[in-house]
């Protein structure tokens, strides 16, 4: 892998990392109602699923899974159902006169939620399968290249979590209880919409 390839990979990869998908939006919402470090720690729940998906792609299994209609469909519907469930829970969160930050706010709960959202999205494997090979040199051993690309992707993902958590924490002064309640419902609606979109989407 050449330095030119890496120079092309980094901005393209970071664009994928900072796209406002369900995990990033959730990190923003968690920080806006809790704090930066709690939301940041919760956002680390996606790292293991992404690392596993990158490993699958590197081993050649990602292409097999991406080509399997039954496997893709099963994971897609499970992921869509979980997204809708999380969205519904956020939509139904208590109003400001009660404590909207009390339920489901432990770091372990946030990590588990982020993990399940990430691992329930089969399109991540499809993205890795289509994206990573464009930056590899087939004349060189592939394993070290995937390790490098995977490590860079995960490092940029950490930056994306920090960015969204920082934005959410920075808006805490602006977010009055009623605005926070509306944000919670807005994020919940977004997650429900994302789940429906995932369920209805065609294969990439």
TrEMBL record:
It is found in: Cell membrane. InterPro entries: LeuE-type. Keywords: Cell membrane, Membrane, Transmembrane, Transmembrane helix. It is a multi-pass membrane protein. The chain crosses the membrane at residues 51-75, 115-135, 147-171, 183-201. This is LysE family translocator.
